[in-house]
Amino acid sequence: MPFGYVSPEQQMRDKADYARKGIARGRSVVVLQYEDGILFVAPNPSRALHKISEIYDRIGFAAVGRYNEFEALRLGGIRYADINGYTYARDDVTARGLANLYAQNLGQIFTESPKPFEVEIVVAEVGDSADEDHIYRLTFDGSVFDEAGLVAMGGQAEAVAGRLKERYRDGLSLGEALEAALFALTEPGGERFPAAQLEVAVLDRNRPHRKFLRLNGPRLERLLATGAPAAESAAQAVRDEKEQNPLSAPETPGTPPTAPDGDIDTGSSG
Q1: Rg, C-alpha atoms of the chain
Q2: Distance between CA 23 and CA 257 in Å, rounded?
Q3: 233-245 pLDDT per residue, tens
Q4: Of 45, 56, 237, 238, which alpha carbon lies 20 to 30 A from 198's?
Q5: What would the pLDDT profile of 112-137 be if each residue is shown by its tens digit?
Q6: How far is the C-alpha of 115 from the C-alpha of 222, rounded, in Å?
Q7: What's the CA gap between 10 and 47, in Å, rounded?
Q8: Backbone angles phi, psi at 236, to 5 degrees
Q9: 174 closest CA partner among 206, 146, 145, 196
Q10: Are 63 and 122 in contact (CB under 8 A)?
Q11: pTM score, two decimals?
């Protein structure tokens, strides 16, 4: 046996430990179903670098870990969706297809690259009914998990998921779902994140055309102020956006200078 030999099993364990430690440094992201679609919530004071984004008409993307790595995955997913939607039909672009693409890429990188991607991602698709919604979680090694109703990843994911399950049930209103997400993301005895430090978005099945919608500014502040009982105010926040900007343009990828707070710093590469 040559000097310095490391078995393939040990190499895989070392890579997995390295990736897990990197992902755990960031803050958690939660994704959960509510009565009208799928809600994404992430602590993130940056207005430039997003942990939550749109991929296609009905498909959203959330990630934790190293920003430049999951941003590369997001952009690759957008290219895949655009090409397939143009070549075939828009309905042929699905979260399952994207999850398979990401699984292949992450698995190949984990196996062949000396350094694995320090990322964990969710690809979610909203359907015409709750039974047709899909939430897929992918880990750094390309493993795919079909989640039922909710998922927490990054940071203290197990503790966050446990608190989220305490408050989650089928058919939550938007206000109740946001309340459950904030309860899960807040450490016991800690202060809740203000609106300025949150990134919140929904896939709203009732919106025409594109289903993805960011909730920020006064809309998010109103949701946070009203709390769980005010389902009507929560719905009004979404209606306001529909009236103001019913067919907003897709987001344009950028290269801002700093990483989201709590995530792994990527340096100047962005």
Answers
A1: 19
A2: 21
A3: 445 555 555 555 5
A4: 56
A5: 999 999 999 999 999 999 999 999 99
A6: 43
A7: 40
A8: -65, -35
A9: 206
A10: yes
A11: 0.83
